[in-house]
Amino acid sequence: MVNKRKRGEPEDSDLDEPSPGKQILPVANLPEDFNGDPSDGMQYLFLVRRDARRLPHIKRVHNPYEESARPPVLPVSAPAKGILPCEKWRDTFQSHFRNLRKNLTQPTIHVRRSSLMQQLIPEKKDRDAWWKFLAGHPESEWSPASRAGSRKKSKSIHHAPVLLESLTNAGQGFDTVPSRVQTTLETHGDDTQALLNLPPQVTTEPSDSNLATPMPHDIQGQQEDIKLIPREATPNRLRGIDHRTSIHLLMYFAHWINLHLQNFDDASKAITDSHARWILSLLAKVEDTVSADEMSLLRNLARACLGILQTRRDLSAGRVEAAEAITDASCWMVFTAVAGVWGQKDLWTDAETALSSP
Question: How far apart are alpha carbons 91 and 277 in whole angstroms?
Answer without folding.
Answer: 20
